[in-house]
Structure formats: structure tokens, C-alpha cells
Design a protein that fits this description.
28 helices; Rossmann fold; alpha/beta; 18% strand; elongated; seven-stranded mixed β-sheet; eight-stranded mixed β-sheet
């Protein structure tokens, strides 16, 4: 179930405004209004001792609940503070509290019944709310929920055109099937679904006659989805770990995992990596309850970029909407030729780590190294020597969940440096805000630019073209040799197989991850400093690595100036416009394309990332281009597309892709740059 395009603040504002007229207006509806309470009574267990009444409004449901369960402890939750004030005057003996309709501040398995009438349509994240209802209910507990169906939007608008109403405020009436499906996915067993209020207007006796006919006959012959109100009554018959339930339903099932390993690293052994060469998703070990921090720290959970930017830089808006906040932008390379040749581009990240280690500023660095037992797989480690840092150099284009190391970092005294991709860095920054012990040793945060990650099948596809398999590999490097490097494998039989970097790029459209396509952060905006290839002919043609370096924090900027003064870095300052032109293809793919793809998923009713950023205004020509690009990715990532790539020899597909890439860049340069700066 998708999130709704409004906030709890907007919902609260509307109901605060109409609160004083709420009871008067609803009194005019008569039975149409009170039917929700009498139908609720049919499903209230008489022996319920702990009842949670969510969206309690001015307390009108309380007498109906008390009539069935006179001795129950009732907790009433309401979003509107004004509504709570009115309810407390009417029922001073009852308990009322304000809620954000998101997290329910009650222990697991603490309620017998949750009542939620006409609420779901006003909740910013209905899926999370239903998961919370499942969490707080005891085994065998009952959820009684009602809401209008999607088709009732137009009748409501027609009614409000001619009759007085308090309005619905920010809302989205959900599809009936959507609600039923989501409740089942959350772990509920549906015991009753009925459409009610078949005739919302007219004499009271006629309304009741129509309702009796609907409930006794019509709903059994195909009209159960009629009625402007629908009741969903469900039991919690399945015990699930509440944290895993949220991780699975909000992140994994809708395909939103960023595969950063955060939940696994914080799980204390309750989660492990499933399919490390493929999906790289967490799965439970069933060894105990999963800590809540696994969910709270995950970068997929409400990754609000303006809020994070405020926490780090003191204001919600970055200096540059394309590059993020920065102190300095420069073309740079390490003066140590060994470091420079061994790196993916100019060696600035490797050189910076070496400088920090040599000066005693850090005791180690969290980096990726190739797994000696699975040489094609990158795994996180703490590099503590020059040799270990040099061995960790170069990009690793396969999915590499570096944050699986978080559990072991709690024992580190540090200080440490950390290198990660944007989504991995976001999780580290979030944990720093929580003052979590797993990140207390981390003093410096650096990161490469993030163009793409490739699914594990990309390695199999590369090896297959040379008649090899993963079990044949002795050593594997994604950018071996001098810039721009080779995708290279050394086999156990002594053979070396490789493709030039620009030829190996043919794998990208066939194996790029969904996270790469939905990410909007190219330049790693929450680091102390970040860097990537300097994509400009003047640097590409020299055959040596040059980096585009961006310093962001005072700490990162001071560090680079210190290295420059020591002669360890060569830098040439450039302005923002030149940096944008240099990275225009990647920035367009991320800053416009990523947010357009998110918006398309949202419009299709799919759950997607919400970064707190507006969908960019782009020319029609760019939107048409995005449609063509989306079709190309869809075909290439399909089984047929991958089969097509497998049967073409590497001696053909590599050069062909490089030629096509150059032609494509020239053809699309105008489309990608048009309006980009705005």
C-alpha cells in the first residue's frame, strides 16, 4: 500500500479547524453517522479488557464501546488537539492522548482490540499503521476498521456541493481490494468484510430498510462492495516478529531495499544475508527478537533529505541542488604515483586514508576488500595498515553491503574513517544522530560518487563469455590496472580474462539495480568529502586518473588543505558550473531521472522512496526521453534482454556498446542539459 501525499501536520490542521462544528454537523446525518458505532458493536468481544480506540474524535464511540465492554480499559488516540479538548469535557473520566497516526506508543501484544473507524484514509502511511496495529494486538486480538471505498470520492464531492459538511481534509479513499490485500500481508486473517450505508441520504426508516436488505441478501449476491462505508474485521492469528514484519512489508516486499546491510549489522545475529551474490537481502535467523534499531536506522525508512541536511549543515536546502552543500570543488589527484595508478581515478580517497593513518589521526578505516574465499565478492573490513588500505582501493561495482560490519564496530575505540555509498552514509549519519554505539568510533565520513551498482548476475555474465564460472576465479578486480582500468579475473588455471572498463560497461543496462535507478544522490552529499571520475575529454584523454573532489564540511575541507600543503595532493579549483557540465549525464540520470521514476511509481499506486524532495519540473522532451530510457532498461533487464547480451561475443558487444555510448551521449547532451541548472 502506497504512502499518501500529505503529512500528519496537514491532517491535524484541518481537523483542528472544524472541531467545534464536528458534532453539530454529524448530528444532522443521524443514522448515517452512528451506523459506524452500531456495526462496530457487533464485533466487539465482550471479554475484551484492553481496547485501543484510534481516531477517537470528540469521543462519540466511547458510549457504544462501554455498552459492550463496561469494564475494559479504553485508550483513546486522536490527531487533533482541539478534538481531544472537546472529548475530555464530554468524558472527563476517560483517557485521551494525541497521536501522529504512525507509531503507536504501546508495548507489543498489549491490546485485545483495536478500533479504528474512518481513519485509514487520513493516515500518511496506512501500511505502517496497519503493521503497528498488528504489533500492539495480542495473539487472537481483533482489529475493527472502517473507511470509505475509493469510488465514494465522487458521491462525496456531489453531496458537499449541495449540503453542509465538515469536509474530509487531506485524505485518499483506498481501494477495497487494496485494504484486504494489505491487511493479509501484515499478518491479519480477515473474518468479516462488509459494505454498509447503502443509502446515505433520505428518511431514517428508508435508510434502515435499505441497510437490512443489503446485509441480509444483497451482499451475498455480489454487492458486498456497495455502500459508502466498508468494515474490515480481522484477527491476529499469526505471530510475527514486529520489526521483521515492518522490514519485510515496507522495504523488502515492495522492492525498496538499498542493500546497504544496516539492519543485518545491527541485528545481533537475528538477521543474516540471504543470497550474497544475488539479492543481498536480510532474512531472520529465528534466534530471538530483532532489535528495533534495525528498522529505525535503515536508510529506506523515511529518508528525509532536507531533515538530514538540516542536522548536518544547519539548514534544509543545500548550497547546490545538484551537487549538495560544498566548501570547495576541484580537479585533484594523489601525487604518489603508486596510489594514483592503483586507484579507480585520481586516488584521492585512498590517499586521504593513508594520510590520516600516517599522521595518527585514525587507527583504521572501514573499507571494502575482496573476499579471499569468494574473490568476486566485496566484503567490509577495517584496514589498519598502508598495505590493507592500498588493497582496498578501486571501485567495487557489485552490491556490497558495507554496513553489515556495524555490529563489530561497537568494540572499536577508534578514531576511524568510513567510506560508503550515499545510502550507506545516510544510515551512518542517522545512527550518529541517535548516538548509537556502533558509530561512536567513526570520525571521518568519505564516499565515492554513486552512478550504479550491478546485480550479482553481472559477474556470471562476464565470466560466461570466457567459458568460466565463479568457482574458477582466483582473483577479481573491477578496475584493474591504470585508469580507466579493466574488469579482470585471474583464474585458478593461470588465465587472465579481462574487458576494458568502457567495454565492460555494457553490463550496466542489463544488471543495474533498482536502487541505482531510484537514487537521486550522485555526489554523496552527506560526507565530509567525496570524489569521482573527472568525466571531461581534457582529462579522459590523458590516460591517467583525475578526480572531481568536493569538500563539504569544515573538517573535510581542512583535511584536504592540510594534504595540499604537505604536497600529497595536486588540486585545481573549478566552479560549480564546470563541475555540473562534467557530471551532467550522471546528474541528469539521478537528479531528474531518479525523481521522475519515483514519481511514476507513485502515480501507478506503488510504494516507493520518499526523500522529501519535489518532483523536478522538466521539459516535455526530457520526459519523453525518460520514457524511452525506461523502456530500454525494462527490456535489457528482462530474461530475454539478458539472453540477447549473453549470446553476443565480448569482442563485439564491448566495442559496440562503447560506440553506442559515445553516440548516445552526443545525441542526448542537449536534452540532458536543457534546464538542468534550473
Amino acid at each position: 500500500m502506497q504512502r499518501n501525499p500529505f503529512s500528519i501536520g496537514q491532517v491535524r490542521e484541518h481537523w483542528d479547524k472544524v472541531a467545534v462544528e464536528y458534532d453539530r454537523i454529524n448530528g444532522g446525518f443521524g443514522w448515517t453517522h452512528t451506523e459506524r458505532f452500531t456495526t462496530m458493536q457487533k464485533f466487539l468481544p465482550a471479554d475484551a479488557s484492553a481496547i485501543l480506540n484510534i481516531w477517537s474524535r470528540t469521543g462519540n464511540a466511547i458510549p457504544f464501546i462501554r455498552a459492550c465492554c463496561p469494564h475494559a480499559q479504553i485508550e483513546n488516540l486522536e490527531a487533533s488537539e482541539v478534538m481531544i479538548g472537546l472529548a475530555q469535557k464530554k468524558y472527563p473520566q476517560e483517557s485521551f492522548a494525541q497521536t501522529d497516526l504512525h507509531d503507536l506508543l504501546y508495548p507489543d501484544a498489549s491490546k485485545d482490540v483495536v478500533v479504528s473507524l474512518e481513519t485509514l484514509e487520513h493516515i500518511p502511511d496506512p501500511l505502517h499503521f496497519l503493521l503497528e496495529c498488528h504489533r500492539v494486538l495480542r495473539a487472537g486480538g481483533t482489529l475493527i476498521l472502517s473507511c470509505p471505498p475509493a469510488w465514494a470520492e465522487q458521491p462525496l464531492k456531489l453531496y458537499e456541493r449541495f449540503c453542509e459538511n465538515h469536509g474530509e481534509g487531506p485524505h485518499r479513499f483506498p481501494q477495497v481490494g487494496e485494504v484486504l490485500k494489505t491487511m493479509r500481508q501484515c499478518g491479519f486473517t480477515i473474518i468479516e468484510h462488509r459494505g454498509t450505508v447503502l443509502l446515505p441520504v433520505g428518511p431514517a426508516w428508508l435508510k434502515r430498510v435499505a441497510e437490512a436488505l443489503q446485509q441480509s441478501l444483497l451482499r451475498y449476491i455480489g454487492t458486498n462492495r456497495l455502500g459508502i462505508r466498508h468494515f474490515f474485521v480481522a484477527k491476529k492469528t499469526e505471530e510475527r516478529d514486529p520489526v521483521w514484519n515492518k522490514l519485510h512489508e515496507e522495504i523488502i516486499r515492495p522492492g525498496l531495499s538499498m542493500q546497504c546491510g544496516t539492519a543485518i549489522g545491527l541485528s545481533q545475529g537475528t538477521l543474516v544475508m540471504d543470497d550474497p551474490d544475488g539479492t543481498c537481502l536480510p532474512k531472520p535467523t529465528n534466534s530471538g527478537p530483532i532489535p528495533r534499531i534495525c528498522y529505525d536506522a535503515s536508510p529506506e525508512v523515511q529518508p528525509d533529505y532536507p531533515a538530514m541536511h538540516t542536522a548536518i549543515f544547519g539548514k534544509p536546502d543545500p548550497r547546490s541542488a545538484l551537487l549538495g552543500t560544498y566548501k570547495r570543488i576541484a580537479i585533484a589527484h594523489c601525487t604518489d604515483e603508486q596510489v594514483r595508478r592503483n586507484a579507480a581515478s585520481g586516488g584521492i580517497l585512498t590517499g586521504t586514508l593513508l594520510h590520516l593513518l600516517e599522521t595518527g589521526s585514525i587507527t583504521g578505516a572501514v573499507v571494502l576488500k575482496m573476499d579471499p574465499n569468494h574473490p568476486w565478492r566485496a566484503i567490509p573490513t577495517i584496514a589498519r595498515t598502508k598495505e590493507e588500505i592500498l588493497a582496498s582501493a578501486q571501485s567495487k561495482y557489485a552490491v556490497s553491503p558495507v554496513n553489515t560490519i556495524l555490529g563489530s564496530l561497537e568494540k572499536e575505540k577508534g578514531p576511524l574513517a568510513y567510506i560508503g555509498l550515499p545510502h550507506q552514509v545516510f544510515a551512518i549519519r542517522r545512527l550518529q544522530q541517535m548516538n548509537h554505539p556502533s558509530v561512536r568510533a567513526i570520525r571521518y565520513i568519505f564516499g565515492p560518487f554513486f552512478g550504479n551498482e550491478l546485480e550479482g548476475g553481472s559477474v556470471d555474465a562476464f565470466l560466461k563469455k570466457f567459458g568460466a564460472r565463479k568457482s574458477d576465479v582466483k582473483d577479481f578486480q573491477y578496475r584493474a590496472g591504470e585508469w580507466p582500468g579493466y574488469l579482470q579475473a585471474i583464474l585458478k588455471d593461470g588465465r587472465t580474462i579481462k574487458l576494458p572498463k568502457f567495454h565492460a560497461n555494457y553490463l550496466i543496462p542489463f544488471y543495474i539495480t533498482e536502487n541505482s535507478l531510484l537514487s537521486h544522490d550522485l555526489t554523496n552529499e552527506f560526507t565530509d568529502l567525496s570524489g569521482g571520475d573527472a568525466w571531461a575529454p581534457v582529462y579522459e584523454e590523458r590516460g591517467k586518473g583525475f578526480s572531481l573532489l568536493i569538500t563539504r564540511t569544515e573538517q573535510g575541507d581542512a583535511l584536504i588543505r592540510e594534504m595540499e600543503s604537505a604536497g600529497k595532493l595536486m588540486l585545481k579549483d573549478i566552479d560549480e558550473d564546470e563541475a555540473v557540465r562534467m557530471q551532467s549525464h550522471g546528474l541528469d540520470l539521478k537528479k531528474r531521472g531518479g525523481l521522475l521514476r519515483i514519481d511514476r511509481k507513485r502515480q501507478e499506486g506503488m510504494r516507493t522512496h520518499e526523500f522529501g524532495l519535489p518532483t523536478p519540473s522538466v521539459p516535455l522532451q526530457r520526459r519523453c526521453f525518460e520514457f524511452i530510457l525506461g523502456c530500454a532498461f525494462t527490456f535489457c533487464r528482462s530474461p530475454l534482454g539478458r539472453l540477447f547480451a549473453d549470446i553476443i561475443p565480448h569482442s563485439v558487444i564491448g566495442p559496440l556498446f562503447q560506440w553506442f555510448r559515445n553516440v548516445w551521449k552526443r545525441w542526448t547532451r542537449g536534452v540532458k542539459r536543457a534546464g538542468l541548472m534550473e
